[in-house]
From TrEMBL:
Assigned EC number: 6.3.2.12, 6.3.2.17
Pathway: Cofactor biosynthesis; tetrahydrofolate biosynthesis; 7,8-dihydrofolate from 2-amino-4-hydroxy-6-hydroxymethyl-7,8-dihydropteridine diphosphate and 4-aminobenzoate: step 2/2; Cofactor biosynthesis; tetrahydrofolylpolyglutamate biosynthesis
InterPro entries named among the record's database cross-references: Folylpolyglutamate_synth, Folylpolyglutamate_synth_CS, Mur-like_cat_sf, Mur_ligase_C, Mur_ligase_C_dom_sf, Mur_ligase_cen
Protein name: Dihydrofolate synthase/folylpolyglutamate synthase
First-level EC class: ligase
Sequence similarity: Belongs to the folylpolyglutamate synthase family.
Length: 485
């Protein structure tokens, strides 16, 4: 049932959000770009007015996109950035010149495209098809906002997969494919080869193809073959061959790296994020930026350093509080959580680390917990705010007990109680009361990270729960914070 908005002059962000959320989520997968192509036809093809960096991969898409955007903006280009999922507010997903749309701008963008979306909905219904989905609508809004700004380059993160993702109506000047691993198998395929094939769908004839470091040795050949098949004009840049992370060293607040791209070597570049994986994401972002920035040869190292040293990504190994050190991370699959554990071991000297975890019931929960078990003294299991998809706490508790043992598992039915339980455990173990070596890590889902971030920043967010009006309208406000997870 659609939420009907009657008073367009007094619209709030919540009104628009509910209207968009009444549509099918991204996981209601329909392998077609017809609706996106039709709405762009109606809008006069705004996507043709800017260059594009298109980013896919199982993990690291958001970080890579943000770093590429920062480099392009530092060089004076006007930028658009489209990422998902959001952590606190849907307005995070669309940014122009490094600033996310204000509530008023988001509402105005919706009003400008709404009539065209209605036309596509009617056309699709006449053919027996569905309305435009939540993600298709947001993608349309992003493209329109970027053309309206106007931007010079849009850095666009794929929602899921690649070939049939709503963003794939764009022709990327740079097609960035980060690590490809097993995730979203029910939509993308049961093997890493099938998943790689889906992600290779973003490669177009005009693209420079940037292949990030891959956890599976068979993936690069699949991506290279896809580039040959479409005749990717810019060729292929592979992490470890045409480009490489020459060196990296941990530093306060992140790391310092030396990167080699096809255009030169960038020495002693600060990256304000933790983990080896972020060094490789920075490399991919730099190669992509070189593709669209109108400079012959190597970019200015000082400009690149300033850009990469300024990028922070909410919910990605984010230190949200001190005393005790509290870290939140949205990682929810084997590759992402392995990167989290490695970064914690490399950058923090914890002697007592308590985990808070909530995951979706369709994820590999036992695998994720098994990865984190060696570095956690205890784990507190709980539920996040996406009630329709979260693993019930009693089920999560059973799996956690099988991994950690009963004496290392605590249960709290709500996120606030879980965080407080973890802090109490850490404080009890900190006999000197100084906090050094004691910490809390909250992980398992971007919804979990978002919930924790809101709570720890002591800000209320009405999107965390359904209102009576939402329920009356038949709207589930839980799903959309994580449509890409």
């Amino acid at each position: 049932m659609s939420y009907e908005v009657l008073d367009t002059e007094n619209l709030t962000l919540a009104d628009v959000y509910r209207e968009i959320m009444s549509r099918a989520p991204e996981h209601d997968f329909d392998p077609s770009l017809d609706r996106m192509q039709k709405v762009l036809d109606y809008l006069g093809h705004p996507e043709q007015s800017f260059r594009v960096i298109h980013v896919t991969g199982t993990n690291g898409k958001g970080s890579t996109a943000r770093m590429a955007e920062a480099i392009c903006r530092a060089y004076g280009l006007r930028t658009g950035l489209y990422t998902s999922p959001h952590v606190e507010s849907v307005t995070e997903r669309i940014a122009v010149d490094g600033q996310r749309l204000s509530d008023a701008q988001f509402i105005d963008t919706w009003l400008q495209v709404k009539d065209f979306i209605d036309l596509v909905d009617k056309d699709s219904a006449a053919e027996g098809g569905p309305k435009m989905s939540f993600f298709e609508v947001l993608t349309t809004m992003a493209i329109w906002a970027f053309a309206d700004a106007p931007v010079d380059v849009a850095i666009v993160e794929v929602g899921m997969g690649g070939r049939w993702d709503a963003t794939n109506v764009l022709d990327g000047d740079a097609a960035v494919i980060g690590p490809v691993d097993m995730d979203h198998m029910q939509w993308l395929g049961d093997t890493v080869e099938e998943i790689a094939g889906e992600k290779s769908g973003i490669i177009k004839s005009r693209s420079t193809v940037i292949i990030g470091r891959q956890p599976h040795e068979q993936v690069p050949a699949i991506l290279e073959e896809a580039a040959r098949e479409v005749g990717a004009a810019g060729g292929v840049v592979r992490d470890g061959i045409e480009a490489e992370v020459v060196s990296r060293a941990a530093a306060v607040g992140g790391q310092v790296v030396t990167l080699r791209t096809p255009n030169g070597v960038y020495e002693q570049i600060p990256v304000s994020m933790f983990g080896e994986h972020q060094a490789h994401n920075a490399l991919a972002a730099l190669c992509a930026a070189e593709t669209v920035i109108p400079v012959a040869g190597q970019l200015d190292t000082d400009v690149v350093a300033e850009a990469l040293g300024s990028v922070k990504v909410p919910g990605r190994i984010e230190v949200i509080r001190r005393s005790p050190t509290t870290i939140i991370d949205g990682g929810h699959n084997e590759n992402a959580v392995t990167a989290l554990r490695t970064a914690l071991e490399e950058n923090f000297d914890f002697t007592d680390l308590v985990g808070v975890v909530s995951m979706m019931k369709d994820k590999e929960v036992e695998t994720v917990l098994g990865i984190m078990e060696p570095i956690l003294s205890k784990v507190v299991v709980t539920e996040n705010s996406w009630k329709s998809r979260v693993m019930p706490v009693e089920e999560l508790e059973k799996i956690a007990v099988s991994v950690f043992g009963e004496d290392r598992v605590l249960r709290a039915d709500t996120m606030p109680d879980a965080i407080q339980t973890a802090v109490d455990e850490v404080d009890a173990a900190d006999e000197m009361g100084i906090g050094f070596g004691h910490g809390v890590v909250i992980f398992g889902s971007f919804v979990t990270a978002g919930d924790a971030r809101i709570l720890l920043k002591e800000r209320h967010n009405a999107e965390l729960k359904n209102t009576k009006e939402d329920r009356a309208a038949g709207v589930d406000t839980d799903f959309s914070a994580e449509d890409a997870e």
